[in-house]
């Protein structure tokens, strides 16, 4: 009886696919919140997993935190949207390849009763400053927060010098918009998150389509020297796939409420 049981056990083992015993391959992406919150990254990653049988873990963070995560060696891929920070990351040897893959733009959001025209984002921000109108800043070192500080800098103003009309909350884009909506305040948002955001009944776009509002996204393959356990081989597969026409089609066809959120521009 024991011999028969052993034969059956061996037969079952041989029938189990060898891949069942293989260690599951996984990569980690430290990504800006906008690509994750809109659902774009989930769609891209699911298609990648189906094609290559490699799972993708996403750490959704502001650009500054995502960069620190990569520097600590906790991600194979960095997907963020602040060119100056990305170039600094590369110059310090933390990344081995960087590509610009898509863009959208920023929009200045304000209360629906805002009646002022916007001839430039600089003039609009100066108006907000002079009138001491409530402004909600992400204050989280994200790409959006960095862009906001750059816009204030265009009119030689520093948020650290502002009074209590300026609220720095240290939150992601979704919570920032929620608070702005509640307080009928102003804030800066990437357009994709604004389009996808639902609870905005008190808010409208008050300023848009100016050159300083351009928002480029870059993807970086992290240097394996930061952590010898990084799965760089599969990370490179992910980067190569992102640069393919397959992903170009996914990004350009991705819409919310009938509007395209991101525009593929890898050359």
Please give a structural write-up.
The chain folds into two domains: 25-103 and 216-264, D-Maltodextrin-Binding Protein, domain 2 (3-Layer(aba) Sandwich); 105-213, 3-Layer(aba) Sandwich (D-Maltodextrin-Binding Protein, domain 2). It contains eleven helices and twelve strands. The chain has helices at 2-15, 33-37, 40-52, 63-71, 83-91, 121-131, 143-154, 173-183, 191-196, 232-242, 245-253; strands spanning 26-31, 55-60, 77-80, 95-111, 135-137, 166-168, 187-190, 203-207, 214-222, 255-256, 259-260, 263-264. Strands 1, 2, 3, 4, 7, 8, 9 and 12 form an eight-stranded mixed sheet that branches. Strands 5-6 form a two-stranded parallel ribbon. The radius of gyration is 23 Å and the shape is globular. The termini are far apart.
Radius of gyration: 23 Å
Tertiary shape: globular
The largest sheet, given as strand count, sense and whether it forms a barrel, is: 8 strands, mixed
Number of helices: 11
Work out the count of structural domains. 2
CATH structural fold name of the largest domain: D-Maltodextrin-Binding Protein, domain 2
Low-confidence stretches: 5-22
Helix content, binned percent: 40-55%
Order of helices and strands: HEHHEHEHEHEHEHEHEEHHEEE
Structural classification: alpha/beta
Mean pLDDT: 92
Terminal Cα span: 68 Å
Beta strand %: 15-25%
In CATH's first tier, which class of the largest domain applies?
Alpha Beta
Number of strands: 12
CATH architecture of the largest domain: 3-Layer(aba) Sandwich
CATH homologous superfamily caption of the largest domain: Periplasmic binding protein-like II
